[in-house]
Amino acid sequence: MTQQTQQTQQTQEVRQTRRKVIAASFIGNFVEWFDYAAYGYLAVTIAAVFFPSDDPQAGLLMAFGVFAISFMVRPIGGFIWGHLGDKIGRREALSYSILLMTGATFCIALLPGYAVIGIGAPLLLLVLRLVQGFSAAGEYAGASAFLVEYAPANRRGLYAAVVPASTATGLLAGSLMAAGLTSLLSAESLESWGWRLPFLLAAPLGLIGRYIRTKLEDSPAFIEASAASAPEGSPVGSLIKNHWRQLLQASGAVLLNAVGFYVILSYMPTYLSEELGLDATGSYLATTIALLTYIGFIFLTGMLSDRFGRKRVLISASILFVLFTVPAFLLLETGGFLLIILVQIALGAMLALNDGTLPSFLAEMFPTRVRYSGFAVSFNLSNALFGGTAPFIATLLIATSGSVIAPGWYLMAAAVISLVAVASSVETSRKPLG
Predict the structure, then answer these.
(1) Counted domains in the chain
(2) What is the domain extent for residue 207?
(3) 70-117 per-position pLDDT tens digit
(4) Minimal CA–CA distance to 221: which of 86, 358, 41?
(5) Using an 8 Å Cβ cutoff, are 373 and 322 in contact?
(6) What is the CATH number of the domain that holds 144?
(7) Transmembrane residues, as ranges (predicted)?
């Protein structure tokens, strides 16, 4: 075999491995956010099943409260999964996290409602959502680190963009399924068994994702770092001691993603139907169209961040949100169906500038020894405090202020904080991984 043939074969093997890494990362995040989409888009039905009340808004607040509480364990999960990912490897941590996630999701589909076992129903739902929150804490961060460490140096932004694209695809699938169930089933059928169908799908999808991951080797960067010297102490301890500044900057940078993602892409159908009076099918359709365009914008953003740098793109996203979020919500309040779709597409494009760049930005901020931990802790801390609570806070702000544009002000505030955090950080796109 000639040297050229060997090089060609090695190149093909590298490309094949990268495709498997992309597939494994995509499926894992898809399953996770398909579940979150199913819960968010069917929140009104889930509220009726688990939190029956004479006041529909009170039941909805309780359903979103469980959604928010499940995020409270994500920082704990971030510490634990980050520790495991930096100690024993990205592949192992990701393989176990997806197994735990899909098991809990499948069990939700089997839960009896409040009418059957009373208070036990919402309590069991809460327990399973807590398991989901814990397992999800390792998914986004681990997949992003895995992709960045496998990617060519000049395409890390594009490769890492697969992660937010897969989350949006999960939301898209959830939106389509919720729209189909809502339009095809009666309210009684939806409450008795229809809402369970999305959760049942988690098991086969999750097992496929785990199978692919078990067939991969760990990333070259992790293997090289592990071979160079034995790890000393806890990765999280090293992170807090030696990289606390980057940890604070990363947590602030995540804030716009945390609030924006769950308000614009998860809460929006409920907002359109419950607050603006749009019919349920129309709400799902508008969000579905916005999600389709958002996925395309994500990959474009990944390429832009490779060309122009992470900071420039992230700062642009924050400025756009500061200037245009409140006007966008005013248009949603006064516009017709076509205008609502156009506004959602615009909001999705603005969000994609942040979301498509953030995974590579966060992964590059930390050296290989603590990359998983740094990403997981910063990402999950902000998402626990501001992401999972976003639908609840948005609903509460509207209820207390009487203004349906209140979520727009909340988004704008998050953009200001992210702008300060990103502006104070260093550019990472053209630096080699540490």
Answers:
(1) 1
(2) 19-217+238-423
(3) 878 888 998 899 989 898 888 888 888 888 888 888 898 899 988 889
(4) 86
(5) no
(6) 1.20.1250.20
(7) 21-51, 57-81, 93-117, 123-146, 158-181, 193-212, 247-268, 280-301, 313-330, 336-353, 374-398, 404-426
